[in-house]
């Protein structure tokens, strides 16, 4: 059983919770889902801001590398190149998570009934877990923010699954989450080829 599957089992509602959920209208569930979508979109906007910061750092360090090479300071250029490589790695991770969250938000927002909500949210949980791991080294609040998002959506999926009487297949959900992240990574590869210049070195014809 996956970690998410274990969490799901441990979080199954008790008798009192089940009675309460039987009285909840579907409209209330959709309202909570809307809050989940808003939370995802807010997180996506935050990643947008972080991405913009990385773009600025990328341009700054690229210029510093070129300047160091023009001054024949290869050691300093190598140091800046290492910094730029780390910046680009983190920027790629941020972009991948942002694209995956956008895809999850789109899927959830097009859910038409309770069953759709459950099946749409199931892959989201795995994506958010991966996102938390990927962002933990990018900014310090990442784990706390993604944990809160996971708790919010986890409550919705528990209610949706119970209300609809569906048994969530987590192996399928995790596979779908993997596809979402892989698609985001492919999109990044295409974008990088068109937007980011290669790090210059003495073998690229730089006029010194």
**Could you say which overall geometry the principal axes of the C-alpha atoms support?**
elongated
Counting H and I runs of at least 4 residues, what is the number of helices? 7
Radius of gyration in whole Å, from Cα? 22 Å
Q: What does the main sheet amount to?
A: none
Q: Count up the domains.
A: 1
Number of strands: 0
Protein topology:
Elements: H1 3-10, H2 15-23, H3 26-70, H4 74-109, H5 114-135, H6 142-164, H7 170-195
Q: Please, could you describe this protein's structure?
A:
The chain has 208 residues and is an all-alpha fold. Helix 4 runs antiparallel to helix 5 (114-135) and helix 5 (114-135) crosses helix 7. The chain is built from seven helices and no strands. The chain has helices at residues 3-10, 15-23, 26-70, 74-109, 114-135, 142-164, 170-195. The protein has one domain (26-195). The longest helix has 45 residues, at 26-70.
Concise overview:
It contains 7 helices and no strands.
């Amino acid at each position: 059983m996956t970690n998410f599957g274990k969490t799901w089992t441990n979080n199954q509602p008790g008798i009192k919770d089940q009675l309460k959920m039987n009285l909840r209208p579907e409209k209330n569930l959709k309202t909570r889902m809307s809050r989940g979508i808003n939370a995802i979109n807010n997180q996506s906007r935050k990643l947008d801001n972080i991405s913009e910061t990385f773009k600025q750092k990328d341009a700054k360090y690229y210029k510093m590398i070129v300047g160091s090479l023009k001054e024949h300071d290869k050691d300093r250029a190598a140091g800046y190149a290492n910094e730029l490589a780390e910046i680009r790695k983190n920027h790629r991770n941020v972009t991948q998570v942002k694209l995956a969250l956008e895809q999850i938000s789109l899927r959830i927002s097009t859910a038409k009934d309770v069953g759709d909500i459950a099946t749409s949210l199931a892959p989201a949980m795995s994506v958010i877990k991966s996102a938390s791991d990927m962002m933990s080294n990018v900014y310090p609040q990442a784990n706390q923010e993604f944990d809160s998002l996971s708790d919010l959506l986890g409550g919705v999926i528990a209610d949706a699954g119970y209300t609809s009487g569906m048994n969530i297949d987590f192996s399928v959900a995790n596979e779908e989450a993997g596809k979402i992240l892989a698609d985001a990574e492919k999109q990044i590869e295409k974008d990088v080829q068109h937007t980011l210049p290669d790090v210059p070195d003495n073998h690229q014809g730089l006029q010194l």
